[in-house]
Amino acid sequence: MVTRIVSKNFDIPNSHKLEVALANGRYSSIDKLFTMKPEEVTAEVTKSGLRGKGGGGAACGPKWELMPPVDERPRYLIVNGDESEPGTFKDRQIFQYDPHILIEGIICTCWAIQANHAYIYIRGEYKFFIDRLNEAIQEAYKAKIIGDKIMDKYDFKVDITVHRGGGAYICGEKSALIESLEGKRGHPRLKPHGKECEWFYGDPATVNNVETISSVPNIVENGAEGYTKYGTEKSPGTMLFAISGPVKNPGVYEMEYGNKMIDFLNILGGGMIEGKKLKAIIPGGTSCPILTADEVERAVLDYESMWDIGSTLGTGGMIVIDESASMVDVAKNIIEFYHHESCGQCTPCREGCGWIDKILRDVLDGKATSDDLQTILDVCDTMNGKTVCVFAPAVKDIIASIVIKFRSEFEEYFKK
Ligand SMILES: Cc1cc2nc3c(=O)[nH]c(=O)nc-3n(C[C@H](O)[C@H](O)[C@H](O)COP(=O)(O)O)c2cc1C
Hints:
GO terms for molecular function: 4 iron, 4 sulfur cluster binding; FMN binding; metal ion binding; NADH dehydrogenase (ubiquinone) activity. By secondary structure, the chain is of the alpha/beta class.
């Protein structure tokens, strides 16, 4: 069930060290990379159907095509390693076990979009991973893999800077991330009307997730066909899926898209731990609508199938919930996180998160009535599609789905 492309070297002892990485195929895409024109690399990535792994699943190649033609302005690649979504812990595996696949992916992507500087934005608390990453970058500079030339022979400059974020979930949202990188408060920017690249200090930039960038060397080396032989037609390739909660083998497993969620739970996840019965799964970090145990039986792990079943694949980080958990507690736990993390820029989000948090407190204290459940759904409605970024719609997705699918558990509290 496991298909290793990005995680190929994860189990090799000292896989994070340059020497071991080189002995196990890292940087082997670079010679081929420089036989290709930048636009050919982008075209190959577009053909591969590689989709962003940061949550939205946007096609990667077409996004690179939004970069304007090269001119005198600097151009940037920004790698999103903020990874603050509850239930999501896959990018950290790359930092820990194969930081060189990320550096290799950065070289490939910088060549494709003709950027000479990449920033890796990583959550400041992840000290261990930051140290690992910095160590690998220093090794790569010392070995002249990056810097003024690539691999000490290709006349193309790539510098990499690691930037530690202050520890705010919203700074994973790409435009808030750029604001933060520019030294400002991490507030998301208004979206442009049409499609365009991102702008960093007014210069063109592309933002991609750590895993997305780490998937690129394989596509360069083996071509689009090497990637599309895995996965489904519309969700080609693989993804680092994570599973946490009361399962026997929680962890991160790379699989091709298209496997059944229940098989993932039972085979790689090892099934529920003794005495626990599955109640629900939040499929891709807490920002996705929850699935009941019945829905889990039908769910297939690709973007289209997950939309068909009324949820999303998100970051592929599955949170398993068992029958002994109260869904009111689950909803309260989740809303406390969002209430704390709302950046406060948009009123529906700032006020809505706090309002739902307060009502759920009242439910737990036995002070709420069934009218209050309707108020939660009304507040969710007010938060949907009326804010600068999709933080508030994501809150609506998870909270409304819990209230609607597990309403009877909330009603139990009104009888007390
Ligand atoms: C509140 C919020 C938090 C996000 N956090 C992350 C994150 O930690 N890492 C990430 O790659 N994308 C995150 N995203 C998605 C980014 O905005 C962006 O779509 C992504 O980095 C693009 O990369 P990709 O196309 O390679 O997935 C977040 C989005 C929102 C709305």
